[in-house]
Amino acid sequence: MDQRLPEFLVNMIIEQYGQEIADKIINGYKCTRKVSLRVNTIKSNIDKVKEELSKKSIEFQDVTWNKDALILNNANEKLIQELDIYKNGEIYMQSLSSMLPPIILEPEPNIDILDMAAAPGGKTTQIAALSKNEAHITACEINAIRLERLKYNIDKQGATCVYVMKKDARTIDDFFSFDKILLDAPCSGSGTLDIKDINLKKKFTSKLIEKSVSSQIALLKKAIKILKKGGELVYSTCSILAQENEDILEKVLKGTNAQIVPITLEDKGIPILPVKIKGTVCVCPNELYEGFFIAKIMKV
Q1: Residue 262: inside a domain, yes or no?
Q2: What residues act catalytically?
């Protein structure tokens, strides 16, 4: 066992996945992840971005499942942040795993979309770009500092179709209704742990998981309530623990008029972990991906 990880977490992972997959996950924590970016199609296109990166001798590779994403082979975030295409919002630094929920949501122009926990805005602006900046997006954030960051990123990316609301999404009025909802729920972050963080054992506690679970249940209940009939919502976390993922879905969906819509990510080269609910997806952390869980739900 790696002594840098909280012992209770290692035990939870072994109990859920078995020793062999647990070793794979722990090895994933140890990887130095390659930098990835998303081209902001509101302001630019993949060919222009590739041209600018090539001028700076930055090597990149395509992402098979996202034509607007690139993995960088020889550049860190600091170097990218010095480029004009970063400064003027033509690209956005975003992990590959976190690009999946907006794509799975399938946003379209002229529909009402809610992003329930929107800051810092990576997924919000991705939804705007995917809908050609023509959806009606409401982005919620309760924390004042995170709200300013969200507004900054929305403005920088030119996502003019987004309305920002300083609100705890759990308390949104029930008379609101949305065609699509993204609930990228606050979580323990068990899929994105930095094993080199000397304070990891202090930060990652069972109390953190308990707090996350209580918030996730309340948010998902609210999401189902304000989702239009026939509408779809994507529930995602950057956790690999069933307590924050499948267990939440089982608790909340039971007895409701909402059901799982199967997601298929096979043949896309994404490292997948076994899940307890068929049709949901859990990504395994490695040198390219963060640990991430995604479920798609329809209100029938």
Answers
A1: yes
A2: 238
**How do residues 151-197 score in pLDDT, each as one tens digit?**
999 999 999 999 999 999 999 999 999 999 999 999 999 999 988 88
How many domains are there within the chain?
2
C-alpha 274 chain-centroid distance? 19
The burial of 267, by beta-carbon neighbours within 10 Å (0-12 exposed, 13-18 middle, 19 or more buried), is given as exposed
Q: What domain range includes position 187?
A: 7-32+96-299
- Quick check: 179 and 114 in contact, CB under 8 A? no
H or E segment at 182?
strand 178-184
Per-residue pLDDT tens digits for 228-243:
999 999 999 999 999 9
| CB proximity list for 211: less than 8 A, separation 6 or greater | none
Residue type (1 letter), 169: A
Beta-carbon contacts of 195 under 8 Å, excluding residues fewer than 6 positions away, are: 2, 4, 5, 29, 30
Q: Give this prediction's pTM.
A: 0.96
